[in-house]
Amino acid sequence: MKVVRETPASDSPQEWLARERAHFAQVLYRYTPLVVEHAKGSYLYTVEGRRYLDFACGIAVTNLGHGHPWVLRAAHEQLDKLVHLSVVGHHEPNIVLAERIAAVAPGKLDKVFFANSGAEAVEGAVKLARYVTRRPAIIAFQGAFHGRTYGALSLTASKSYYRERYEPFLPSIYHVPYPYAYRNPSGPGDEATLKYVFDFIDEMLDTRVPPRNVAAFIVEPVLGEGGYVVPPADFMPRLRKLCDRHDILLIADEVQSGYGRTGKMFACEHTGVVPDIMTLAKSIASGLPLSAVVASSRLMDQWEPAAHGSTFGGNPVACAAGIATLDVIEQEHILANAVTRGAELMRRLLELKARTPSIGDVRGLGLMVGVELVKKDGAPDKELQARIRKVCLDSGLVILSCGTHDNVLRIVPPLNLSQDELDEGWEILNAAFQEVAA
Prior knowledge:
By secondary structure, the protein is α/β, with parallel strands linked by helices. It folds into two domains: 13-60 and 333-436, Aspartate Aminotransferase, domain 1; 70-331, Type I PLP-dependent aspartate aminotransferase-like (Major domain) (Aspartate Aminotransferase, domain 2, 3-Layer(aba) Sandwich), CATH 3.40.640.10. The protein is built from 13 helices and 15 strands. It has helices at 13-23, 57-60, 69-79, 92-104, 118-133, 150-155, 190-207, 235-245, 297-300, 316-331, 334-354, 382-394, 419-436, and strands at 36-40, 43-46, 51-54, 111-115, 137-141, 173-176, 214-219, 249-253, 277-280, 291-295, 359-365, 368-373, 397-398, 400-402, 408-411. Strands 4-10-9-8-7-5-6 form a seven-stranded mixed β-sheet, with helices on both faces. Helix 3 packs antiparallel against helix 10 (316-331) and helix 4 packs parallel to helix 10 (316-331). The model has no long low-confidence stretch (mean pLDDT 96).
C-alpha cells in the first residue's frame, strides 16, 4: 500500500502549481495563476499574502462575497445536525428552501427539484420537458452555454473547442441565432435584430423541425459565456408568444443571470416573461454545490417518482446555506445595491467608451456587465482583452473574459459591493485601459 505523506504548506505559488501539475488533471482551465489561501468579502488572499479585489465571484457564484457570516453560520449549524441523507428520507432544509424558492419565483413556478450544478439542472429541465410533452426536439441559441455534461454540451454553442472530439451529441437538438444587436448580420438596431432571429426561427420550423416535434426552447435571458449580451426588450415576450402558439415549453436558463445578478431576482423579470421551466445554480447557496429545476405543479406533477433523481442534490448543508442566502438578499437590500452600483459602473464605462475606440460595446443589467473590445476594423480583439486582464491582475483586480471570440471583459463583482470597492476596482480598470488601449 502506497503511503502518501502530506507536504508542509508553502507560501510559494510555484511550488503549489508544480504539485498540482503532478497530480491534477490539466483539462480544468483556470483564468488566473493565483493560488488562493483564503477569501473574505470582496477580496481573495493568495498563499504569498497578496490581496486581490474579486470582480469574478467564481463566475457569479459568490454573489454575496466570500464567507458572508449568515451563510457560514447556517452551514456550520447544519453540519452538526445532518450532513447527508440522499433519497433515504426527507429533511427540513430541503423542504424549507423549496418553499422559499417557490415564493420568489415568477408566476406559478411553485415546485423545485434540487441537483448539484448548472449542467445537472439543465439536464433535468430537458428531461422534464421531453417527459411531459412526449416530444423529442429542443431548440437552443447560438452563443449559449448550458454546461459540459453530454445533454448540456449538446445545447452549448459558445465555443467550438467545448465540443471538440465529443461528437456525436444528443439528437434532435437545433440552434438558432441569439439576438445580438451589436453584431447582427442584417444590420444594427433592435428591430432588425429581432426580425433576423424570428425569420430564422420561422424558416427552421417550416423546413427542418415541425413545431409539433419541439418540446422546448431553452434560452439565457441574458447571454452569459456567449458575451454578456442583453437582448432587445421585446425578445423574450415574442419568444413566449411563439412558444404558446405552438404549445412549446420555454426553459429559462438563469444559472448565471439569476439570484439578483441583473438587479432583479431573475433576469426574465425585466421583461415580465414567466418561463415554463427555470434552471438555477451558481449563487443559490453562496458557494456550496446546489442547483435547481423550478417549474409549475402542472408540469412537475406529471414527472413520476423515480423518473429522475440525484444522490447529492439538495444536500442539507447546501440547502441551509441556500436559505441563509435568501435571507441576506431580502434583509440587506441586495437587489437595490446591484441596481445602484451597476448603474454607476455602466455610466463610467460608457464615458470610457466615448474616448476609447477599442471599446466597441458596453452592455449589461445590474452587475452583469460586458465590455466588447474590437480592432480598428471592428473585428473582435481577443489579444487586447488578455492584455487588459493581465494589467488588472498585476494591479490587484480579478476580472474574467467571455464571448464567442473571447474578446469581452466580463465584470461580475459581488452584489453587495461597496462604493469604496467599486471605486478601487474602477481605478485599476481605467488605468489598465489608459496603459494598453489609449
